[in-house]
Amino acid sequence: MSSIYNINKGINKSIEFRGLRAQYIGYLAGGLVALLILFAVLYIAGVNTYLCLALILGSGTALVICIFRLSHKYGQYGLMKKRAKRSLPTYLYFKSRKLFIQKKEGL
Length: 107
Fold this sequence. Notes:
The protein has helices at residues 23-45, 49-86, 98-106, and strands at residues 16-17, 20-21. By secondary structure, the protein is mainly alpha-helical. It has a domain at 17-79. The protein has a two-stranded antiparallel sheet with strand order 1-2. Helix 1 (23-45) runs antiparallel to helix 2 (49-86). The N and C termini lie far apart (56 Å).
């Protein structure tokens, strides 16, 4: 009795949707939800429907292009690394190298 099981070969890989990887999918989804809310607010405020559509379509196109550029430029973790690098100090000041010398001798 043999059974056929599907093997998931994507274990420990990030999700991908049409070329977008990892957190960029969330950024795109959040931006599209924000555009939907903006459209609703403009429509309720009484702005011309065609003007609303043109504004939202233009902003949506710019959002998609921007997110895809970020995804291709920085890759899966590059944007997070760039943000983390900004929080590092520009230099570290030590009065003594004693800690590092002891660490080297301990190995």
